[in-house]
Design goal:
The chain is mainly α and 166 residues long. The protein has three domains: 59 residues; 62 residues, no CATH class; 36 residues. The protein contains eight helices and no strands. Helix 1 crosses helix 3. The mean pLDDT is 86.
Length: 166
């Protein structure tokens, strides 16, 4: 009677395959037969779809070749979207990044601070380019003034009601 392969081993086999390891290498690493490796991969491919499975493997191979983690790739995509949102096209991207790098070096800013700034900008979908920032700030100031006026009005109403109650 054959002992079933535990789910955590099956999951590790899929992970190893997605990272570009070959079947012989995977079989040796997890002490299972190459046929078992093939069966695990085939079952997984059938479950999610062969096309998607192969695309995920190609992505894994590309990331491995580029020596990039999935998290780094996702961060890069986020940064690319933000750069596009700020209206910086491909032709001006290098110039923009060079100026950003030189300015951060000049001011001795840590890269993490720049990332925090970029993430903060991304949190405001109303800002589509750097030129929108002053307008956005003015709009928010006007909104704050209106809200402060409303607060003062409501406080005054509360005081009047408190006096009526007394």
């Amino acid at each position: 009677m054959r002992i079933p392969i535990p789910e955590h081993i099956k999951s590790a086999v899929i992970d190893a395959w997605l990272m570009g390891k070959i079947r012989d290498e995977i079989a040796s690493e997890y002490n299972i037969s190459t046929g078992s490796v093939s069966n695990i991969i085939e079952q997984w491919q059938n479950m999610i779809g062969v096309y998607d499975a192969n695309n995920l493997r190609e992505l894994g191979l590309g990331l491995k070749k580029a020596k990039t983690t999935p998290v780094q790739c996702a961060d890069g995509l986020r940064i690319k979207k933000i750069i596009n949102k700020l209206g910086i096209d491909e032709a001006h991207l290098f110039d923009f990044l060079q100026k950003l790098y030189n300015k951060s070096k000049e001011e001795r800013s840590e890269p993490a601070k720049i990332i925090t700034l970029v993430e903060a900008l991304d949190a405001f979908p109303e800002i589509n380019s750097l030129n929108d920032i002053p307008q956005y700030i003015n709009k928010e100031r006007q909104e704050k003034i209106k809200l402060d006026e409303e607060i003062n009005y409501k406080k005054h109403e509360i005081e009047k009601l408190d006096q009526e109650i007394k």
